Amino acid sequence: MTEPHDALTFPPMADRFRGYLPVVVDVETGGFDWNRHALLEIAAVPIELDAAGRYVPGEVAHAHIAPAPGTEIDPKSLEVTGIKIGHPLRGEVDERTGLDAIFVPVRAAVKKHGCQRAILVGHNAHFDLNFLNAAVARVQHKRNPFHPFSVFDTVTMAGLAYGQTVLARAAMAAGLGWDPKEAHSAVYDTLQTARLFCAIANAWPLQRPASGDA
Prior knowledge:
The protein is an alpha/beta fold. It is about 35% helix and about 20% strand.
């Protein structure tokens, strides 16, 4: 068990991941092909530091997204997620508005911590990043705060830490619990992934910048 970081001396977030801010992202989609299938839901949680310098999940940003023109929906995906496209309670927004609902608070968190940009954290992270990048390309968004190809993947982290690669099993191994009724909600999966990332990262010895680095 690692000791809490000294609140007076712990390094800021900007010095921990080469200037990148970890931001956990989960997407729910209309299939597995990011070039064809629609982005339907997205949630993001910036990783913050508590008073002792330990990693904690920040506030959730979230959007339900209407299928973009030209994208497709595989009905089997909707059976898994339970998403009802067009339902009035979903509060769907267009893809550009949905991205802004994520990017604006993420950019604010990056600025708050003095980081240069965000880096996506996910469970099978390149799946989420590929759908995010495809949506960015469709709407020609010019202010994407995320690194275009680098990620932190909690599949690898949990496999190393707990010998588990399935999110539900990794969360259970980390003592976080798992509610199958809430699974496949972008908000729930993002929060659980954020808690998993923090549990593993907080158990790792804190690396401080070498003298002269900052």
